[in-house]
Amino acid sequence: MLLAKNSYKDGIIMHCENIWQSKCSIHTWGKGPINKLPSEFGILEFPPTSNRDMWTYLTCCMSQPNDQIGLELHLFSSIQDLKLVELLTTVAYFHRNTESLGLRHTVNFGMPWQNSSQCSFGLISLPYLDGPELENFKIKKNKVLKFYWLIPITQKEVEYKMQNGVEALEAKLEENAFNYTNTKRISVV
């Protein structure tokens, strides 16, 4: 689907609601320098469904139609947790105002992902659970908006990625059948 310029936010919402077969709520984090994010920016919250037993949180309008490389990030949770609105807003702020993020990058959350989790970093990965249907959203004739999975990881996993590469870390995560919604999971390395 190609988007008209004034329907960028609506297009993102419609794309994700179609993929996840669920209606979302939109949240904003009202603290900090929120004015340095796009005015339409928010976090979409998708509740569990009969096909999906987890909550999904997604940036909306972290990217803008004229960005050279547009991307939005999502993560999963076993519980409804509005603290993830803050976390994703912080990541979006970093992306828009400090350093552009992209596939295979890691980002320091500056706090545990949830509760007292050892995971205080995120790995930007392909959306393996949802595939290319989610990942690639055509917004203009020659422009695709990317939707990537922000996987919470530990400091040790970041160090392993730095030494061995992202493919080696992803292989370790897969070998260990890591539970990506378990806030108490230990490092796979």
Task: Give an overview of the whole structure.
By secondary structure, the chain is α+β, with helices and mostly antiparallel strands. The protein has five helices and eight strands; from the N terminus they run αββββαββαββαα. It has helices at 8-20, 83-97, 131-135, 155-164, 166-175, and strands at residues 25-27, 42-46, 55-60, 71-77, 106-108, 119-125, 136-140, 143-154. Strands 1, 2, 3, 4, 5, 6, 7 and 8 form an eight-stranded mixed β-sheet that branches. β7 and β8 form a beta hairpin. α4 packs across α5. It is globular, with a radius of gyration of 16 Å.
Short description:
It contains five helices and eight strands; from the N terminus they run αββββαββαββαα. By secondary structure, the protein is an alpha+beta fold.
